[in-house]
Amino acid sequence: MTEAVSTQRKKIHPHKFTLWIGIGSIIMMFAGLTSAYIVKGSMAGFTTVQMPQLFYYSTAVMLISSFTMQWGLKSFKERSMQQYRRLLTVTMILGLAFIAMQLIGFSQLWEAGTKMKGSTGAGQFLYVIFGLHAVHVLGGIIALIVMFIKAFSARIRNYNSVPVEVMSTYWHFVDLLWVYLFVFFLFKL
Amino acid sequence: MSHGHAEVITTHEVHHDEHGAHHHHQSFITKYIFSQDHKIIAKQFLITGMIWAIIGGLMSVLFRLQLGYPDQTFPWLEDILGNWARGGKITPENYYALVTMHGTILVFFVLTGGLSGTFANFLIPLQCGARDMASPMMNMLSYWFFFGGSIVMLSSLFIQTGPFSGGWTAYPPLSALGDASPGSKTGMDLWITAMAMFVVSSLLGGLNYVSTVLNLRTKGMSMTRLPLTIWALFFTAVLGILSFPVLLSGFILLLFDRHAGTSFYLSDIYIAATNQALPNEGGSAILYQHLFWFLGHPEVYIILLPAMGMASEILSVNSRKPIFGYMAMVGSLFAITILAFLVWAHHMFVTGLNPFLGSVFVLLTLLIAVPSAIKVFNWLTTIWKANIKFTPGMLFALGFVSLFISGGLTGIFLGNSTLDIHLHDTYFVIAHFHIVMGVSAFFGMFAGIYHWFPKMYGRFMNNTMAYIHFWGTLIGAYLIFWPMHYEGLAGMPRRYLDYSNWSSFNQFADLNRFISTVAMIVFALQLLFVFNFFYSIWKGRKVTTLNPWDATTLEWTTPIHPGHGNWEGEIPEVHRWAYDYSKDGRDFIPQTEPIGPNESKH
User: Of A40, B134, B270, B530, which sits with the fewest C-beta atoms within 10 Å of its C-beta?
Assistant: First the structure.
């Protein structure tokens, strides 16, 4: 039986694997939405909007947060917990800043006259798709908060790196997803 | 939820402890209600699905009553249904609500949740040789999302404006505009909420099924030694994971159209009921149809593949012969999974799709006949010259093959876009999909329940009742749906409340009454099955041997009443594939038996 355990150990951890499949399923959801955009975008009377400048900055924030997350994982593996906690906090703040910037970007678009009612163009798709992405970032932030509490809890000492690895994979994924969506809209607008 | 569960969650550690089955004390609530044991969750899915099947089946009895006797009133209907049947006659709005909810309930809550929810949960850990799912917690959440969605969907039956009534596919504008019909108001909001919860449940379940099959197989259980049930349930989960999110994105856009006034799906609409022209412009209802059917067609195979897998297993066990063409079976399951994603637009041949695009989808659709025919051929060659044991499970598996052939052949008619001009939205379509995915998936499910009931409850179901159930349902299913093909070929459209004023279809009045009568009898027979099921849980004949069917697979190496963790002691090691029946003069060789020195190759 010990042999069976050792062969299983070589495999990817089931939680990481589950995350990868989950990522596949999220990709399908956004693939559905962006292909809906392509279908509608080729129809007559489709209006486009100006991408708010702020979204360039939010892209930068997202990319930096991915970097801090990765650095955090590295610190965790090196058992430098002080640094891990600091980087976790920074990642969380950057994530919240990203969502705040998205909301401000939406309100700028709204002020500029892109409303929900009436005929639908790129603006409405942008609200829905970017909004849904922000919801996924929010989910990541909630997971970060849980890990944050765990990291500061004095009672439990846990050096199992799997949860941190799962977290960082998800975070890189929402980062990459954002880059894809941003570039998609840059080309399409 | 103490020590034991923590072990099961980190499944790797479980292999270390000497007693895999956990004997710690659990309260009734953690053992039977908020359980993380895959076997209990499977039973929860099964019984919830059975309750839904009774509700959905009763709905079909009610609208068949209307279709069979359009000129009569039934005052007792008003007593039980109230406003739905004022004066003893089902109102047109509620007739639509009944057919819509019948479709939604049967397709999603019975044949998806109830079928793959039950058997994926029950069989994957047992037949792969795992203590539990990769994440028992997510598995439990999967059931409770299903339960929550069920409650929301059920509650929509009791609101004043009634449940959603625009067809189970929920096409806009009926699904997008509250003013379009009574059912489009709160009923649709509840429908979409329930469906969103259902999608979450399916995804949580599916993630677990895939990661369990790929990661938690016991030692020696290579992929090609897996029973075909597991292969089928695996591909089912893959289909769900890749298609349900797309449905969800379709629903999200629909929600915005409903409540934020966007025009993703709406354009140039005038509502007669409120005498109002809407400002929506540039939307496309076809877009919704694409997003819906990108799930909707894989959904057909999500329903059918588990039935195929279970039928393969049960046919082989009761024929005492290895399954014919194991790799071809796996290959055709894979081919069906791929093709399932490439044929969705054949549901849209006449809704305004580009005819050239249609011709591509005709080709891809007809290609599905190839793997389907391979499977049928292999089932028939498996039972060819076999010494068949006609257990109830075996009978239902044979019935499944029969129905799959009958229903599959009419699919070739409907897959042609030119023939579809005549046949679309007629009773021919109703007959086709009810036989090929409705009744045949039900037969696969019944086969599975009769076959694995001894493992689920440690007792057998009553055989006499099972035989009455089988023959009545098989004959009844053909008597109900065979005549519908003729009605459909004559052009009789679906979704109409009353055909008596239509001289072309008057001639079918007697036939409709006949169909309705048989439908009621068949419904009553299903109640006999439900009685048999619950009666046998407590009063059925007890299972006295570990392996009552003399099967090779791992689930029959567990104790008669397996605890959470499935095996006492170590998980058995696997040395051979799952189909060594009638080999080297032996009736069967379990998967756990090492290959002998003089054993012949299969």
Answer: B270
CA-wise closest residue to A114 among A163, A51, A70, A59: A51
> Using one digit for the tens of pLDDT, what is the confidence trace for B194-225?
999 999 999 999 999 999 999 999 999 999 99
A60 contacts chain B (CB < 8 A): no
Q: How far apart are CA B281 and CA B301, in angstroms?
A: 36
B207 interaction partners in chain A (CB closer than 8 Å): 18, 21-22, 25
Domain residue spans in chain A?
2-188
**pLDDT per position as a tens digit, B60-100:** 999 999 999 999 999 999 988 888 888 889 999 999 999 99
On chain B, the residues whose CB falls within 8 A of the CB of A4 are 15, 218-219, 571, 573
B293-537: CATH topology: Cytochrome C Oxidase; Chain A (1.20.210)
A132–chain B Cβ distance below 8 A for any pair: yes
Please determine, looking at this structure, whether the domain spanning A2-188 carries the CATH number 1.20.120.530: no
Chosen from A9, A11, A21 to mutate, greatest number of chain B CBs within 10 A: A21
Measured CA to CA, the distance from residue B54 to residue B530 in angstroms comes to 9
Alpha carbons within 13 A on the beta-carbon side of B301: 34
Q: What is the CATH number of domain B35-262?
A: 1.20.210.10
| Residues in contact with B265: Cβ distance below 8 Å, sequence separation at least 6, in sequence order | B172, B173, B176, B253, B254, B257, B283, B284, B285, B287, B288
Complex ipTM value? 0.90
CA A171 to chain centre: 5
Q: Which of 101-120 (A) contact B at CB < 8 A?
A: 116-120
Q: Where in chain B is the domain with CATH 1.20.210.10?
A: 35-262, 293-537
Encode pLDDT of B146-162 as tens digits: 999 999 999 999 999 99
Residue pLDDT, tens place only, B314-326: 999 999 999 999 9
Question: In this predicted model, what pLDDT tens digit does every residue of B561-585 receive, in sequence order?
Answer: 999 899 998 999 999 999 999 998 8
